[in-house]
Design goal:
TIM Barrel; single chain; alpha/beta
């Protein structure tokens, strides 16, 4: 079972001039549990080449490695799994292609979507966006996120793990965990941090505090 506390979504264009390789290495040192290869502005070929090294580094460190959106890329990289959105293959199809042992995640923002994803066989949910985020360019200006309240509603409705995503920082991660999230998924909270290792560790500590508050 993956360690959900801190889940890094990669984005080299959001990494303050540093490579994804550097950021992932630093996050591993800081205790990251899951790394998702995203890199939306790279070609599939470039993501494949980058993913080969990331997969090995994650495997050596015991960190779960998943691919954003692309089931074919997850297969080619022998990744641990894939994370799917509304416009990607259905969870059931991804399961048929990747097998029973694959970790399959699904992005959701409502209770209905969460229950449907669980019923379809998703292993975990990415719930959000929790707060307004600058790492997505398709978020309407008026969208301030679903908030910790929605995280709590979804956590109460499903039995699979969920991570909050969107606008999460070391300052609000504990609030998200206290609402019921098993962890937090971030991009810039780690990739733009002056010290990504320390930022990863701080996020993990915040999630632990929030989890303690919840219990």
């Amino acid at each position: 079972m993956p360690d959900w506390d801190v889940y890094l979504v990669t984005g080299e264009s959001l990494s303050a001039g540093r490579s994804t390789r550097e950021i992932v290495g630093a996050a591993i040192e800081g205790g990251v549990g899951v790394v998702q290869l995203r890199e939306k502005d790279r070609t599939v070929r470039e993501r494949y080449e980058m993913g080969q090294e990331l997969r090995e580094r994650c495997r050596e460190a015991g960190v779960t490695f998943v691919v954003n959106d692309r089931v074919d890329l997850a297969q080619a990289l022998a990744a641990d799994g894939v994370h799917l959105g509304d416009n990607d293959l259905p969870v059931s199809v991804a399961r048929d292609l990747l097998g029973a042992g694959a970790v399959i995640g699904r992005s959701v923002s409502t209770v209905d979507a969460a229950e449907a994803a669980e019923a379809a066989g998703a292993d975990y949910l990415g719930v959000g966006t929790v707060y307004r985020t600058g790492s997505k360019d398709d978020v309407p200006e008026a969208d301030h996120g679903v908030g910790p309240e929605r995280v709590a509603e979804i956590a109460a409705a499903v039995d699979i793990p969920l991570v909050g995503i969107g606008g999460i920082t070391t300052e609000n991660a504990a609030e998200v965990a206290a609402a019921g999230a098993d962890g937090v998924a971030v991009i810039t909270a780690i990739t733009r941090a002056e010290d990504p290792t320390a930022a990863t560790a701080a996020l993990g500590a915040a999630v632990e505090r929030g989890t303690t508050e919840r219990s």
